[in-house]
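Hey L., structure's done. Input below.
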Amino acid sequence: MDSFSTVIRTASHEEHVQAETSTFMSDMLGGRLGVDAYARYTEQLWFVYEALEAGAERLASDPVAGPFIQPELFRQASLERDLAHLRGPQWRSRVSALPATEAYAERVRECARQWPAGYIAHHYTRYLGDLSGGQIIRDKAEKTWGFARKGDGVRFYVFEQISNPAAFKRSYRELLDAVRADDLEKQRIVAECKRAFALNTAVFRALGEEFPLSA
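Output:
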């Protein structure tokens, strides 16, 4: 019988691929978009992580979600440093959430308030993605737009408190395998994971409409 971490990864594979291969992400990673598109994407991430981390302190004592609340993962402060670099010191007055981002963030907040097990699905799709594919984005951003290696502009992707990402991801998957949920609840978590990827893809689609390649 497959472990829950294997089940959740396998069941959401198609949605994961759709997100990774969206037109916007392909164009950005291919160097076909300017730094403003990258900055706009970073703005959207801030709204999602603000929602993810706003409820973290309260969820830390939750028997289901609590084990996943690990401060070394927190990204909001790094995003704020990146946005100060990308948008200037008054960045808070210059950033805005796309409607798709607002929907994504609201779903995260809803799960954080009402359904800790569902919050895990969003936690998993975001943070493990940052530790994995996010490093490809960092490398491309440094090379394409000249950011200092692991410096301001790409600090979101730099997990300074995680010295061994591979070992951390293994321990994270062990937490998933040990999650306190029955089979029905695990099925609901898997469905929420798929929803999280779909919400993320919707953000990419909206960004693609905002930054179409010139024909």
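The radius of gyration is 17 Å. The chain has a mean pLDDT of 94.

-- N.
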